Amino acid sequence: MELKQKIILTGDRPTGKLHIGHYVGSLRRRVELQNSGLYDKIFVFEADAQALTDNIENPEKVRQNVIEVALDYLAAGLDPERTTLFIQSQIPELCELSFYFMDMVSVSRLQRNPTVKTEIQMRGFSGESIPVGFFTYPISQAADIAMFKATTVPAGDDQEPMLEQAREIVRRFNYIYGDTLVEPNILLPENAACLRLPGTDGKAKMSKSLGNCIYLSDSADEVNRKVKTMYTDPTHLQVSDPGHLEGNTVFTYLDAFATDEQVARLTTDYATLQEMKDHYTRGGLGDMKCKKLLMAVLDETLEPIRQRRAEYEKDIPAVYEILRKGCEVARAAACETMDEVRRAMKINYFDDRALIEEQARRFQK
Ligand code: TRP
Prior knowledge:
three-stranded parallel beta sheet; binds tryptophan
């Protein structure tokens, strides 16, 4: 038997430019996984069809952000030679697989999906006014994952219920139709700060509507301005006061971004981040010094990303061409899986010579 391939698949809804929360939560890891050479195939895609499930009246927003997110991907270091970058809506086979998956999930199972529950509340849909497509997007997401036989899905913990649902559907499919699809595993970010990076205002999540995001495409000046106004410790009034790390956004960001090597090189007084934290909690360390370090650290991370983005921005048609080629590669993989699915489900009438001959014999009697 052939060895099971290791395949990564993950994606984002193109509803806005990517921010540094996306970067530490998943993008940075994808680039590392790509460069590790440990995976047979890597697919990263823009879930535009999923984005439309609650933006159906706002297609222009999705259309504009498809190119922004593509630029963010390339700028962050995803390499189209090694990673297949594609757009969900261009793979019609995904609709086909979703359609069959719909027969394997009950309404009550979907209603129990905690991510869908919160999203329904967040969007203010009441009772049964939820669009069916939005309600069933976990099924379509299971199709995204199963179609490419992903073994590994790097994502945030909010995607855990989606992965659980995908595994259930794959298990059910394989049980009914025989071993065809592959059960995926989630790959979560390495530390708590990366799992859910708060906004610059200290609020739970970076979100465009709260205006608390630092974007990958922000200039150094913009980043510095945002860091200066960042939420720290409201009880840390005088430099000499003891400071608190809990809920202190500057330190959360340092946890997510700074290595001890950077702390040692970019400060004069500390060899590790922990030493700096100890000083802060003792008292005697001002917020501005911490923010200065954060600015320097963010700049070291973001400057190469900005430069790569600027290069790609010079030739936008070439970026669309990268996506078009990626869609072709993804589509070929999807067609292969759908052939197997149709065979397993016994809906491959015209490819099945034996069926045609058997039916011919039956009717000639
Ligand atoms: N739901 C994901 C998000 O909101 C996007 C997504 C769609 C996805 N299909 C996926 C992520 C498959 C991982 C795997 O960001």
